[in-house]
Amino acid sequence: MIRFDNVSKVYPKQTRPALRDVSLEVEKGEFVFLVGSSGSGKSTFLRLVLREERTSHGQVHVLGKDLARLSNWKVPQMRRQLGTVFQDFRLLPNKTVAENVAFAQEVIGKSKGEIRKSVPQVLDLVGLGGKEDRMPGELSGGEQQRVAIARAFVNRPKLLIADEPTGNLDPQTSVGIMKLLDRINRTGTTVLMATHDQNIVDQMRKRVIELEQGRLVRDQARGVYGYQH
Amino acid sequence: MRAQFVLSEIGVGLRRNLTMTFAVIVSVALSLALFGGSLLMSDQVNTMKGYWYDKVNVSIFLCNKSDAESDANCAKGAVTADQKKQIKSDLDKMGVVEKVTYESQDDAYKHYKEQFGDSPLASSLTPDQMQESYRIKLKDPEKYQVIATAFDGRDGVQSVQDQKGILDNLFGLLNGMNWAARAVMALMLVVALMLIVNTVRVSAFSRRRETGIMRLVGASGFYIQAPFIAEAAVAGLIGGTVACGFLVIARYFIIDHGLALSEKLNLINFIGWDAVLTKLPLILATSLLMPALAAFFALRKYLKV
């Protein structure tokens, strides 16, 4: 699903690499936590998977494709098989819940009939059935993140990338979001989640990948957070 | 559905930047109206030049029968064959002359018809009212005076005209105006392009959340850029339509009504509606493509995958 081979990333005008010689593999259907302090390289890792950045050295394979060899015009096709969720939800404030989810399908040219079918389905899945016509501003943070997850999942991606999805939520709400991500993972979708949330990592007991100053320092199945503040 | 989605996005975008859109429309309209005006001015000059303008420098008009009655220069009657022969051989001997062409009354009638075809004056003319003439090309156009002193006042010669002298001042003025129009057009064009680039960037910036999501869910580059390009094209097309309106109105009020130059200067042949109408598709196409291209290049850096 994801394979990093000796990947390093140096941003222009910076001497310290953001990632140093990282090699790892994530299999289909896995649930993986990516942990590490700020500046450890988590964001760079995710940006490389999304091909928002290219590597300085080494290769990144996502869904069996070498991203370095993927030409720019093929990147959109690749991203249609990924779903992305962020800490700040990134919903469109002037669209309703249903429109926000439908947007992800409209802009890749899905038919109206298809959209009408899949949007209520995915809203039910994330537990927002009946709130289709609400505006994001009327929802709680947890509900907004559920909308964002619905939007990321509506095109049935093979890989869901979540960048601190619980970063803005209280612990109880976070547990709800984690249950949802776990449910999505059980449908066969690989989940890669960057997080700072120690409780969540410790409770879920999934694979943990830890980065420190750009280096891969730990890759542990059924791991705990372990990082010292 | 797709079209509806794109169209609503364009509408939202244009309204969001109403002042900028307005500025784009006005600057595109002005620059293209000047562009069209400059093309029409060239057409006007070409229309006025007539058959001989670019071919000769001096014309010697010979007396015809009606001149013999009305014109003091022709008091001795219409030109005779001997006089014509003499003029021709004198011209051939002159060193400054490069080429002499004889224009018969029938030729003159034909050329007149070509230039003033549908004017009321032309329809009342007959060939025998036309003048025969010698059309002379000089090696040095400045040597007009040599011909004038040699033939002015000779029997059978009605007048010697420096063909360019008459029209050159007018053409100089028109040309000057034309260049001024082009210079202003070029400036307005630069302004229009910069406004379009800026409008598109503001538009892209104000919608960066949408475009960011579009990129992440895998919308194609074309799908992301199309609304912005279409926005610029629509604004440009409105400007182009306004420019077309300007030209039609200008033709109407300057030549036919209002200033009504066609009545006041009825010896001048003015451009017709066909000259104006053939420019309109060109202007509309430019107004559509130019902003679209500008938007495309403005976005290339802004909305990379």
β-strand amount of chain B: 5-15%
Broad structural category of chain A: alpha/beta
Shape of chain B: elongated
Spans of chain B of 5+ residues with little confidence (pLDDT < 50)? none
How many angstroms does the end-to-end distance of chain A come to? 31 Å
| Largest interchain contact | A-B, 27 and 19 residues
Broad shape of chain A: globular
How many β-strand runs of chain A?
Answer: 10
| Major sheet of chain B | 4 strands, antiparallel
**What is the H/E order of chain B?**
HHEHHEHHEHEHHHHH
The whole-number mean of residue pLDDT values of chain A reads 93
Number of helices of chain B: 12
Biggest sheet details of chain A: 6 strands, mixed
Total strands of chain B: 4
Q: DSSP strand (E) fraction of chain A?
A: 15-25%
Q: List the quaternary state of the chains.
A: heterodimer
Query: What is the distance, rounded to the nearest whole angstrom, between the alpha carbons of the first and last residues of chain B?
Result: 25 Å
What is the alpha-carbon Rg of chain B in Å? 29 Å
Helices and strands in order:
The complex is a heterodimer of chains A (229) and B (305).
Chain A: E1 2-9, E2 19-26, E3 31-35, H1 42-49, E4 57-62, E5 65-66, H2 75-79, E6 82-86, H3 97-106, H4 112-125, H5 141-153, E7 159-163, H6 171-186, E8 190-194, H7 198-204, E9 207-212, E10 215-220
Parallel strand pairs in A: 3-8, 3-9, 6-7, 7-8
Antiparallel strand pairs in A: 1-2, 1-4, 4-5, 9-10
Helix pairs in contact in A: 3-4, 3-5, 4-5, 5-6
Chain B: H1 2-16, H2 18-49, E1 58-62, H3 65-70, H4 81-93, E2 97-103, H5 105-116, H6 120-123, E3 133-138, H7 144-151, E4 157-162, H8 163-206, H9 208-217, H10 221-256, H11 261-264, H12 273-302
Antiparallel strand pairs in B: 1-3, 1-4, 2-3
Helix pairs in contact in B: 1-10, 2-8, 2-10, 2-12, 8-10, 8-12, 10-12
